Amino acid sequence: MRSQLGGHSAQRTLRPSNAFVGAELTYAAGQVLTKMAAERPWQFRLLLKSKLTGIESAGSSGSWLAKVQGANSSELVIAGRACVIASGGFGHDSKEVESMLLKHRPDLADFPTTLGPQTTGDGLKIARDIGAKLVDMDRVQVHPTGFVDVSKPGEHTKTLAAELLRGVGGLLLDNQGKRFTDELGTRQAVVDAELNSATQGGALAAPMPPRTFSIVLNGKAAAKADRHVTLYSKKGSRWLACCCWCCLQEAQWVTNCAMKCCWCCWLVVVGVVCIKCCWCCLHEARSQF
């Protein structure tokens, strides 16, 4: 299927119609790699549950030695004439002694992330330590939306609120139930609008974390993003708004807005916090259906 995402004037992004694009891509890549390892073991070796601990030069030969901690804690040394490092980002590297996030973008240190706890920039630090020149490390992108579990609003790791939710018609609202931006603007434009609104007191109040807003979808829009709605619902999200004749017991501030609309509303608390850095993405997400 085609979907319209931020900065687009038409539907031009291809995505699976009945699955999540990230899961589909990683599954397909995993299938190919597993097949290669089975059919061409002399050319390709796949190490699972292993960790790269260091790389060093093999001397005048020009080769490299990669040190790996195997699944059973065994130490492996792999030699090669060339070495490509594709290790992921540093979204969780905000509290380390040599934090890359604090060094290159200290202004984003309090932003949560959707990345896993393994993303502490280890591969980048290993590359740096053997003389690699790191570039564009300050190019950290803040994604406009993500979810937060209202029962654990302080959790550092969040769930991404996919851009698709805005692509199918989701509206971003401030604490007065008012729109404050073009939801399909570029990510930077939407983020700037969110930060500006938060500065002017437009974000939701505590106990929600800073820079928290809401996103509302009607029934038609929610149906287009059914896979996402179902997933977030299973994660413990709560319905805040129903049909126009229902009272909004949990979200009184948006009652007037919803009562004027003769559509079914799917309302979620979101935040302006998804950081992407070349290979890293942090998100401040918030979920409260």
Automatic annotation (TrEMBL):
Residues 4-201 form the FAD-dependent oxidoreductase 2 FAD-binding domain. GO terms for molecular function: oxidoreductase activity. This is FAD-dependent oxidoreductase 2 FAD-binding domain-containing protein. It holds the Pfam family FAD_binding_2. InterPro entries: FAD-dep_OxRdtase_2_FAD-bd (IPR003953), FAD-oxidoreductase_2 (IPR050315), FAD/NAD-bd_sf (IPR036188), Succ_DH/fumarate_Rdtase_cat_sf (IPR027477). The keyword Isomerase does not apply. The keyword Flavoprotein applies. Keywords: Flavoprotein, Oxidoreductase. It comes from the Eukaryota. SUPFAM superfamilies: FAD/NAD(P)-binding domain, Succinate dehydrogenase/fumarate reductase flavoprotein, catalytic domain. It comes from Polarella glacialis.
